[in-house]
Automatic annotation (TrEMBL):
It comes from the Bacteria. The lineage of its organism: Bacteria, Bacillati, Actinomycetota, Actinomycetes, Kitasatosporales. InterPro entries: ClpP/crotonase-like_dom_sf, Enoyl-CoA_hydra/iso. SUPFAM superfamilies: ClpP/crotonase. It comes from Streptomyces luomodiensis. Gene3D superfamilies: 2-enoyl-CoA Hydratase, Chain A, domain 1 (3.90.226.10). Pfam families: ECH_1. This is Enoyl-CoA hydratase/isomerase family protein.
Amino acid sequence: MSTVTIDERDDRVVVTLDRPDARNAVNAAMIGELHEVCARLEARPKPLLLTGSGGVFAAGADIAELAERGREEALQGINSRLFDRLARLPQPTVAAVDGYALGGGAELAFACDIRIASETAVFGNPEPGLGIIAAAGACWRLADLVGTSVAKQVLLGGIRLDAERAHRLGLVADVVPAADLHARAHGLLDRMTRSSAAALRLTKLVVDSPGGHPYVDDLAQAVLFETADKRDRMARFLTKETTR
Ligand code: COA
């Protein structure tokens, strides 16, 4: 790996975007390496913590590469296919965003299930200023996350969302000093790892399933109701063995 660092633990994987000289801009090499991360997490599902080095999440797709791309590359959906794959990972994904999350960097954070921000986090999609659209998810994921009105402020108005506004809008779960960002994100993952992995996986599938409610919810519940893990967890609650 040359553009990301990977810390694989028993119960989670921490991936750090690591091209500080280019403000962690997402280039083709990083796309390839993040596909490898996805392949690993599809084979052995674990929660993912995604973050950036050097006080930046990611300053966008790599503009030097974008400048050389034409219609064929656009139709390949180089970034959007990766972000869609990331969004469909079986276990939850958390983006810990410090500093800039712009363009493709913002879209990468939007593709995660939950975002936590440092006080310096800034989300924005300046793509029209470069003569292109935010084609890797912002045009629809951002509207899903914060509503069409705010999405248009960002995508058309070039308005950046600082950490405080992102928090008020629900785009981020929490805002903490940069020094506490990773601890807070790990705390969230700690809580997740205490839950049933099967229940998290099926919850994510159900939340993200386009239509099909309530039948898909019933099907997922039917699977979970038959597990020993569910019976154990409920028995521990009823016998007051779990902390509440
Ligand atoms: N693609 C490629 N290189 C990038 C980049 C990007 N998206 N963002 C930053 N870089 C490079 C710069 O070209 C510069 O390289 P250099 O040192 O060889 O000149 C280096 O990263 C540092 O960038 P710089 O602008 O000097 O850092 P800064 O801290 O003053 O500003 C940003 C940070 C994020 C505000 C600024 O770099 C920026 O606006 N980046 C582009 C954001 C953007 O338009 N993203 C959408 C792309 S789709």
